[in-house]
Amino acid sequence: MSDLISIQTGPIQVHSWIVPVCENFVLIVDPAGCSLTNDESAITGYLHSHGLLPIAVILTHGHFDHVIGLPVIKKEYPKIKIAVHEKDACFIGSDSGVYQKRCLDSIGAKEILPFVKNLPAADFLLKDTDSLVSVSPRAYCLTMCNNDVKTVQKIQDALQAWTVIFTPGHTPGSVCYYNADKKQLISGDTVFYQSYGRTDLYGGNEVDMMQSISKIRDLIPSATKVYPGHGYADFLLSETL
User: What is the full per-residue pLDDT of the chain (241 aa) written as tens digits?
Assistant: First the structure.
């Protein structure tokens, strides 16, 4: 398994990305499969059928459609860790319903609210330029790997290659995840194919979005493959920015 795998799930068909780490270990990005859309087993079923073990859930941002599947993942993998940027941590956890309601009210989708109340809380709060090695502390890795020190080192080396890029605009705590070695950018709802994320929902900011787009343009090589939260995926950054 070498490429990112998309499992489109949830009420707005989010790309829930399965990201290879090493051997059979993976990351889950933005789980959206849930009982509301009768696809609650889409992600877990894929992992089980392919013998994959998730290390952590990493979120690109906290909007309902990208986090609605967290309870399913947490139920299946109780010890799994969840990471989100510190400015979007309010969208999950015990007060999630308060903040999700502000988004859902604005798009007239109140029927989704019961599914995003009291979501699992974040275990790790991410910041700009963090490496994803932070989501897999050594003691936690050792438990997952049955104290196989060599495998733990492989996991941590692989996660070290992924960097958090703070890209507010769609939400206050939106991030992208960038792997320079593999030339891959997981862009959430910041960068889409020949477009970018909306800024008219709760916490959105057009000025911040324009600054984030400029930041990506300046930091990321144009030959990088982009894996967004919705729509056409696996395109070159040069095709959109």
Answer: 558 999 999 999 999 999 999 999 999 999 999 999 999 999 999 999 999 999 999 999 999 999 999 999 999 999 999 999 999 999 999 999 999 999 999 999 999 999 999 999 999 999 999 999 989 888 888 888 888 899 999 999 999 999 999 999 999 999 999 999 999 999 999 999 999 999 999 889 999 999 999 999 999 999 999 999 999 999 999 999 8
Angle ∠(26,39,47) on CA atoms, nearest 5:
25
The answer to whether the CB of 169 falls within 8 A of the CB of 146 is: no
Tokens representing residue 166 in the block: 């703070």
| Structure-block tokens of residue 238 | 């040069």
For 5-239, CATH gives 3.60.15.10
For the chain, which residues make up each domain, given as ranges?
Answer: 5-239
